Amino acid sequence: MKLLLPAPSPTQRRFFAAKHKYVAFGGARGGGKSWAVRVKAVLLCEKYPGIKVMIVRRTYPELRANHIVPLCALLHCGAEDGGALASYHDARKEISFPNGSVILFRYCATDRDADRFQGTEVDVLFVDEATQQPEERMDRLKACVRGVNAFPKRIYYTCNPGGVGHAWVKRLFLDRRFREGERGEDYTFIRSLVTDNAALLRSDPDYVRRLEALPDKLREAWLHGNWDIFEGQFFEEFRSSPDLAAARAAGCELGEEALRRQGRWTHVIEPIDLAKGAAAGWKICRSYDFGYGKPFSCAWWAVDYDGVVYRVLELYGCTKTPNEGVKWPPERQFAEIARIEREHPWLAGKTITGVADPAIWDASRGESIAETAARYGVVFSPGDNNRIAGWMQVHYRLAFDENGYPRLYVFSNCRAFIRTIPLLCYDAHAAEDLDTAMEDHVADETRYFCMSRPVRALRAKVEPPFALDPLKTKEELNGREHKPAPRRQGASGGADAHPAAL
Hints:
CATH architecture of the largest domain: 3-Layer(aba) Sandwich
CATH superfamily of the largest domain: P-loop containing nucleotide triphosphate hydrolases
Largest sheet: 8 strands, mixed
Helix content: 25-40%
Oligomer: single chain
Radius of gyration: 27 Å
Number of domains: 2
Number of helices: 17
Shape: elongated
Structural class: alpha/beta
Strand order of the largest sheet: 3-4-5-2-6-7-1-8
């Protein structure tokens, strides 16, 4: 019996043809990713005798429903008329081909499950729904891809935005931020959307409409494959680049580069020389969150004459592994902070006020961390540790006004903030709070700083009643008939200047 397959979509063809060592296939729901995994696994096994392929999902019921049952049907496993293309062994959870190739089916929901993979050797690994797996667990699974045969070793991931593995998938395949030992040429991302899956759209024409009816964040992730917004995201308002959709909704037609120069609908801007011009007179502050086994975080902030704050520098004590501290003792941390404040041209000679976690004043076991800091000339005041009020202050600062200006900017050199803030999620058991199991150290010291300079929430603009004058349009009643959107005065005083331009 011959293997009969429907025609793949263009994106599925790209997935079949991909030869990179690490291939991620995904972006949105309904793109035909699981089907592509099954078919590619079969094609590899038929073409290359004797290879071992492993398909992994988080739970066994998912594995059975999405892969074991469909593959057994596709390959006519168990057919009694001699038409079986392969045989399924339920006890071993594997499909064997006549040429000696094998597909193993494994689930991995916990670290203990990952321990069961020790000693397993495969040539090809498929991880379906990879964003459901943390990076550390994936590293252990990757160790299974090894062997002495000549077949090139490959790992294929399918993925949607969101989930515990969102950060590592986005880092490697979307942002392409590689660590030492990771080679960019080994990685490729193939974007898949529901609109690529003609078979699904024919069989279920209402599927797209159901996705369109989802809440905003789920719709962005599951329909449009947006990796910057996902369900459960704590700081969903943070933007590392101009939000063109928000700008258009506000009636602004400027392009991304123009909005970036003006600092509108974005929080990340290029650094400004704080040693020159009007910015040289801005107030400088410092925020700090202690860490040893976990990262410590120290940031320097500038406050302009309008009270807008800028995260200008940071010292983040993290190894190349996320949320792993460099284990510097307090003395080394504060010696380095003091050195930076003596030598950096933006900070040298400035009076710097500091705020930190109140826990560093604990002297129950000898000299407190705050006292150690003071010995190095690094002085702090205890921060207000009201978590919910503090998070609201950060939200207030990040919010954009009607013209797209926030009250908190981040210089592009502050990479720890830009990396960690978008990935933080709500605590599943504490409404309005952040999940403290995540890499929240930058967020904590940002919270202390924002609580030290509280602001009010932006007031929503109230539209006047439209029927006041039947001869006037709504725009005329609002006084907007010929007026462009006002821009915040820059440091140079020019109306068209970037809010911090010199």
